[in-house]
Amino acid sequence: MSRYIITGGKQLNGEVSIRGAKNASFKQVIASLLCDQTIQLTNVPNISDIKITESIAKSLGSNIEYCGEHCIEITTPKITSSIVPVGTGEKSRASFMFAAPLLVRTGKAIVPMPGGDKLGARPLDRLFDCFKTMGINTTLTDTEIIFETDKITNTHYFFNKPAHTVTETVIMTAVMTPGETIFENASQEPEIDDLISMLNAMGAQIMRDTIDPKKIIINGVNQLHSAKHQIICDRNEIVTFACAALATKGSINILRIEPQTIETFINVIEKMGAKIIPGKDEITISWVKNLKNIDIETGPEPGFMTDWQAIFSVLLTQTVGCSTIIEKVYPSRFQHIENLKKMGVKAAYFNPVVDNPETYYQFNPESDRKEFFHGVKIYGPTKLSPANFVINDLRAGASTTLAALTAEGESIIDGVEYIERGYEKLAERLRSLGANIDYIKT
User: Are residues 239 and 217 in the same domain?
Assistant: First the structure.
């Protein structure tokens, strides 16, 4: 179990470059299996989620070569197995996405039940329902999902609620299906558009409707070909470093980014009183005065990203007044709040009073439980106290790290291999900003 030893209370200042997006890169490795020619991906982050995805791809027939620390070439001349291995597949919450290239190239895919972070149920009913309209049969067992088809057919499908990874999976499945496929009420995240850009570079014909961006139109092609693609910046990293600087009353210049991918976040912290100096591919974010409290709700793009809220919670502990977060995407995603309470934060859970919870929330009603809370009030500013933790979740681990950087004194965080799933050399990069953080790898 790897460990961070953090002596917090130091202001973070300086400059940091952002790596390629975790939530785009591993999916593009999967998409490369659609083609029997070489796909080159650049700006690939060096994180464990990529290593897991590469391991699965190799077991299915891919050859992967590194041509630099952040560049890989993937060639899959033949799919040698239609079964995603249980060991590595269970470690990845999105191993089911391998179903797309396996179905396209073999007509069958067997994947383990999704694993990953401890966020509660991850229902795939929207995928199963859409696949049914595409001529794909789904069989569930206690441990695996079996997809089979004699022929993938085009469809015109309307999602009852946007679904990020499901949208990406069905796009990959449809790219070589004859005729026109249309997905409506589809997700709009920039990682999806980056996947579309990659697939189009491979010869696919995919576009968003110019009037309704939730409408995706795909004209099937006979085959895909080799391509080169640069992965977009990781917007979760941007928000993490921005919140780290603001929570410690510092200033940071964040390089190699696409500011439009975090426009919602920028609007929020600017409203709170942060100083923002935007650039073409960079942004400077500074604490210049006490930040005001704020109320937010998570939601699909263009809403406030659910992956940001755990990290953002730390910043709210340093604002003046009571702030609220309402989590609308997952039924249970406030595990990190207990860590903040351990450090002295005053926080209270609540459930919002809403007229139509089935339409208000993005998760399925059957995923909810009476013991789950969907809102939390955070009171600030709070002088955080150091503490020791064992973490088991990527975003909660990142938020606990930020809280430890804010607290005066020594905190110990065990289980940071979960953080390594999504952040490359986080301790080293925080150290370059002035953090007192030791990384002990076991």
Answer: no
Say whether both 383 and 283 belong to one domain: yes
What gap in Å lies between CA 328 and CA 280, rounded to an integer?
32
Please report, for the domain that includes residue 253, its CATH number. 3.65.10.10
**Do residues 268 and 349 both lie within one domain?**
yes
Q: Report the chain's mean pLDDT, rounded to a whole number.
A: 95
Residues 237 and 360 in one domain: yes
At 216-271, the pLDDT tens digits run: 999 999 999 999 999 999 999 999 999 999 999 999 999 999 999 999 999 999 99
Same domain assignment for residues 301 and 185: no
Supply the range of the domain harboring residue 47: 22-230
- Tens digits of per-residue pLDDT, 90-117? 677 778 999 999 999 999 999 998 754 4
Domain closes at, from 230, 257, 277: 230
- Radius of gyration of the chain from its Cα atoms, rounded to whole angstroms: 22
